[in-house]
Structure formats: C-alpha cells, structure tokens
Amino acid sequence: MATADQIKRLIKAHIDQDNDKFRTVVLQIAAYEAKLGHTKLARELKTLIEKAPARSRVVQFDNQNEMLLMSMPDDKLSDLIVPDELRKRIERILDEFINRQKLHRYGLANRRKILLEGSPGTGKTLTASIIASELRLPLFTVQVDKLVTKYLGETSTKLRQVFDSIETITGVYLFDEFDAIGADRSMDNEVGEMRRVLNAFLQFSEQDQSESIIIAATNNQKILDKALFRRFDDVLHYAYPTEKEIEQLFNTKLCLFDPSFKPDSDLIRKTVSLSHAEISRICDDVIKQSILKETTITQERLSRLVEERLSVYDREAL
Ligand SMILES: Nc1ncnc2c1ncn2[C@@H]1O[C@H](COP(=O)(O)OP(=O)(O)O)[C@@H](O)[C@H]1O
Ligand SMILES: [Mg+2]
Predict the structure, then answer these.
(1) Buried/exposed code over 91-100 (b: 16+ C-beta within 10 A; e: otherwise)
(2) Residue 251 vs residues 21, 79, 185, 283, 304: alpha-carbon distances, Å
(3) Sign of the CA dihedral 181, 182, 187, 191?
(4) Residue 56 — very low, low, confident or very high, per pLDDT cuts 50/70/90?
(5) 41 close to ligand 1 (CB < 6 Angstrom)
(6) How many CB atoms are closer than 10 A to CB 252?
(7) Residue pLDDT, tens place only, 178-234
(8) 63 or 237: which carries more pLDDT confidence?
(9) 148-162, pLDDT tens digit by residue?
(10) Predicted structure pTM score
(11) Which domains, and CATH codes, for the chain?
C-alpha cells in the first residue's frame, strides 16, 4: 500500500489545488505499487488519473527491470552542507524543473542531465536523493555494476531498457559510480566493451527528450573522458568540507542529541582531512557512546574518535 508520506503528499496537493502535483503523486503511487507487483492496482490508478480532465501522459511500467532500484527519498536541501555556490546551482536545477513549462514556451529546456564529481563521502548520492525528494519524484538508482555485465553485447540492451524507463516514468535517474562506464576510452580493454557502453550511453542520453532528470555521479574525475563533460547540462564539483562546514556538520548532527554542545577550534582543525560522511559517522559514534555509557558529549571524546579514524589512514600510508 501507499506509504504514509505518499498519502500526506496527496492530501497536500489536494489542499494546494495543485493538479499537476496530484497527478504526479498518483503516478508515483502507481509506479510504487507496480514495483511491489500490484500491477492491477497500478493500472487502475493510472486509468483513473488519465480520465481526469488535464493533459495525460502514458506511463508504462517496467517492473521487470532489475537494474533499477526505486526509492522515495525524504531528504531536504537544508540537510546538505556545501558551499553557497554549489547550493545555488542545485537550487537552479530545482527551479528550472519546476518552471520547465515556462522555459519550453520560449524554446528553452531546463537543465536535466547533470554530472556530479568529487571525493567520496561528500554528498553526491545525497544530492540525487535531495533533488528527487524536493521535486517529489521517485529516485531510480541504476545499478551500474549490474549494467556492465561480463557478457558482451548485453550491456547496450540493458542500457536501452533503462532509457525506456527514463522516457516512460518521470523520475530522477542516478547512474552512481558512473566511472564504471564512463572510464577514459584510452583505458579500454582490448574488446572495446567499455567504449561501446559509453557510446551507447551518450547516444541514448542525447536522444532522450523525456522530463526525467539524469544524474551521473563519480568519485574519479580524472578517468572521465573530457568529451563527456560537454554532454552534460551541468557539472557540479564536490569537495571535502571547509572548517566552517565542519562546524556546521557537527552542530546539525549533534544538536538533536545535545543542543548545548559546540565543537571548539582545535577539534575542527583536527577534523579537516575527513569527509562529510566520515564526520557524520563520528557524530553517530559519539552519540552511541553517550547513550550506552550514559555520558555527555565532550570535545575529548569527539577528538579521540577523530584520531581513531585518522589513524586508519596513517596505517594505510605505511
Ligand atoms: N555535503 C554533505 N552534507 C551533509 N551530509 C553529508 C554530506 N556529504 C555526505 N554526507 C553524509 O554522508 C552520507 C554519505 O554521503 P554520500 O552522499 O553517499 O557521498 P558520496 O556519494 O559523495 O560518496 C550521507 O548520507 C550523509 O549522511
Ligand atoms: Mg555515492
């Protein structure tokens, strides 16, 4: 059955008298039900909403597609701690999507093919969830490892199925760990499978005229083909947090548990070489420690956890 979140969104769309949103939520519920194997209900929902007096869009469900993992994330842009410039660029993607009809009237397209690149644990996957959630679209994560099979030739067929879905079910499609298919052509194996897959991706992506947002994310900018960058409407760069961002991360992660705790400058400085994901984990660890040992959060306890994590790198460097 529809999730509580979907029901809330449906009611909100009704209250706001937002037909488009109402229709989108019904289609999301139908897609969700189809994914659960409730195809009869999905079809009924789809028929009902198509009878509603407004533009209708034919949606087909491909619940056989094992490469796509569907979710309905609930993350807010305010959860993301990034430089203002990056936040503005994400806002621009959201804004252009929301106002896409207005742009279309002037022959312009909203930016919807996005490449996210940068260090691991800096919020690329989270950004895809946020975009889906803020636009109330389902998030489809493309299982790139399942896509790149060891069977020659099959990959392009699978990729076509993914693009069929992009066309028929509007959503945010995340090609996570994109380097698996985007790797530099010169690093190709002798059978040229990677090149074929990448070319197929570029070709499908170029032909794609859907409303879906396509996001490719990679930790490894260097191995990506330069020509590839030009094919995206936007390339967003992710980096490790600055001191100011580290402070913000500690504050937001710990404030629910202990609003009075504020990280001091020594602690922040010590944390500088860690990613957002690692700092989040340290915050979870210190909260767990406080619960289990019935202690409060202190600079020292956090500092020890930071050192513990840093020492892993020292050992790796040996
Ligand atoms: N910029 C960020 N702001 C807030 N939290 C973050 C950020 N980056 C990462 N995190 C935390 O770390 C987790 C993992 O990050 P993720 O988005 O998977 O990183 P990436 O995809 O860049 O490797 C997130 O779910 C979130 O809890
Ligand atoms: Mg990721």
Answers:
(1) eebbebbeeb
(2) 34, 12, 44, 10, 18
(3) positive
(4) very low
(5) no
(6) 14
(7) 877 755 555 555 556 667 777 888 889 999 999 999 999 988 776 566 777 888 999
(8) 237
(9) 665 656 777 888 889
(10) 0.78
(11) 4-59 (no CATH), 77-238 (3.40.50.300), 243-317 (1.10.8)
Residues in a beta bridge with 68: 142
Backbone angles phi, psi at 140, to 5 degrees: -110, 115
Q: Which ligand sits closest to the CA of 119?
A: 1
pLDDT at 58 over 60: no
Lowest mean pLDDT among 22-36, 128-142, 251-265: 22-36
Spell 195-205 as b/e; 16+ CB within 10 A means b: bbbbebbeebb
Instruction: Verify whether ligand 1 is closer than 6 Å to residue 121 (CB atom).
Output: yes
**Whole-angstrom Cα distance, residue 154 to residue 197?**
10
Give dist(CA 276, CA 291) in Å, integer: 23
Residues less than 5 Å from ion ligand 2, measured at CB = 124-125
**Chain-wide mean pLDDT for the chain?**
85
In sequence order, what DSSP letters do the residues of 99-111 get, joined into one string?
THHHHHHTT----
Distance 6 CA to ligand 1 centre (A): 25
Indicate the residue type of 225: D
Residue 32 CA to residue 196 CA, distance in Å, equals: 32
Amino acid at site 51: K
Residues 128 and 218: beta-carbon distance below 8 Å: no
Cα–Cα dist 40/145, whole Å: 31
Q: Give the nearest ligand 1 atom to 82 CA.
A: 1
Residue 179 CA to ligand 2 centre (angstroms): 12
d(CA 149, CA 158): 9
Q: According to the model, what pLDDT value does residue 189 have? A: 56
